[in-house]
């Protein structure tokens, strides 16, 4: 599942292709907006908010998309082949570039002044201009009995973390994923580390939390179930937590992250 850093890069790619140019094609392949036509309108810009994308269009319109599990935006020169079948949800194109939204989890077209209804519930965006660690900590503390593993994925607390950054951040802080939020003394240190990890990866594909970009060495625990911990040699554990099916996966080291 794309996490905040991947969504941030997607927004940058869409800005490069669409900003400041009038649309020559808009093709919504979702029932609710099948008749919408944005042709002739200029794209103002695309912003990321946590894992959400907001493409603002001339005339007080915003296209809201979310990649969810396996969505992506493909950018290519206009006229290039578009993936066949029913996986394309939205095409936005200008004379030069086309952006094709494939398997998007959400596609909405709203008034720009109604964006808050879609993203207003989000906590501070780890990669946004509004990033505010104190506010993230305040929101986390609002439910002290919750497990920290679930709380970090709740985008109402802070926006942008998925299963990879959850696992890696908790490993690096030595925190067992089922520990209660109220039992963690240094929540500020925890959220600041998560922010630094996402920021360090926002400029390139892939997730490197070890500082070592070689493919087999990029993470501490994520993708390493059953293999020895890089610090203590204990085999990395794999389990499930939380209610959302796509967000259950958790990896941890029982040696470095004791109960
Ligand atoms: Zn370990």
UniProtKB/TrEMBL annotation:
Enzyme Commission code(s) on record: 4.2.99.18
SMART domains in alphabetical order: Fapy_DNA_glyco, H2TH
InterPro entries, alphabetized: DNA_glyclase_Znf_dom_DNA_BS, FPG_cat, FPG_N, H2TH_FPG, Nei2_N, Ribosomal_uS13-like_H2TH, Znf_DNA_glyclase/AP_lyase
CDD domains registered for this protein in UniProt: AcNei2_N (cd08971)
UniProt entry keywords in alphabetical sequence: DNA damage, DNA repair, DNA-binding, Endonuclease, Glycosidase, Hydrolase, Lyase, Metal-binding, Multifunctional enzyme, Nuclease, Zinc, Zinc-finger
An example molecular function term from Gene Ontology annotations: oxidized pyrimidine nucleobase lesion DNA N-glycosylase activity
Domain named Formamidopyrimidine-DNA glycosylase catalytic: residues: 2-91
Coiled coil: none
Domain (FPG-type): residue spans on this chain: 220-258
Catalytic activity, reaction form: 2'-deoxyribonucleotide-(2'-deoxyribose 5'-phosphate)-2'-deoxyribonucleotide-DNA = a 3'-end 2'-deoxyribonucleotide-(2,3-dehydro-2,3-deoxyribose 5'-phosphate)-DNA + a 5'-end 5'-phospho-2'-deoxyribonucleoside-DNA + H(+)
Record-level GO BP terms: base-excision repair
Family: Belongs to the FPG family.
UniProt xrefs under PANTHER family: ENDONUCLEASE 8
UniProt name for this protein: DNA-(apurinic or apyrimidinic site) lyase
UniProt organism field: Nonomuraea thailandensis
């Amino acid at each position: 599942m794309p996490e905040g850093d991947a969504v941030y890069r997607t927004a940058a790619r869409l800005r490069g292709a669409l900003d400041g140019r009038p649309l020559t094609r808009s093709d919504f392949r979702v029932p609710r907006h099948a008749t919408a036509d944005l042709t002739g309108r200029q794209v103002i810009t695309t912003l990321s908010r946590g894992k959400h994308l907001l493409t603002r269009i001339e005339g007080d319109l915003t296209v809201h998309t979310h990649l969810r599990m396996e969505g992506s935006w493909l950018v290519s020169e206009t006229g290039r082949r578009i993936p066949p079948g029913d996986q394309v949800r939205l095409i936005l194109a200008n004379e030069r570039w086309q952006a094709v939204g494939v398997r998007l989890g959400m596609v909405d077209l709203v008034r720009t002044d109604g964006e808050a209804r879609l993203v207003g519930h989000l906590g501070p965006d780890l990669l946004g201009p509004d990033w505010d660690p104190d506010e993230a900590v305040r929101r986390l503390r609002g439910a002290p009995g919750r497990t920290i593993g679930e709380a970090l994925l709740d985008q109402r607390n802070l926006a942008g973390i998925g299963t990879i950054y959850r696992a890696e951040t908790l490993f690096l802080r030595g925190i067992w994923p089922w520990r209660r939020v109220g039992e963690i003394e240094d929540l500020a240190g925890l959220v600041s580390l998560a922010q630094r990890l996402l920021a360090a990866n926002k400029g390139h594909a892939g997730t490197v939390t070890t500082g070592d970009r070689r493919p087999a060495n990029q993470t501490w625990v994520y993708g390493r179930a059953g293999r020895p911990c890089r610090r203590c040699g204990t085999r990395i554990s794999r389990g499930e937590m939380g209610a959302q099916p796509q967000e259950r996966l958790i990896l941890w080291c029982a040696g470095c992250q004791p109960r």
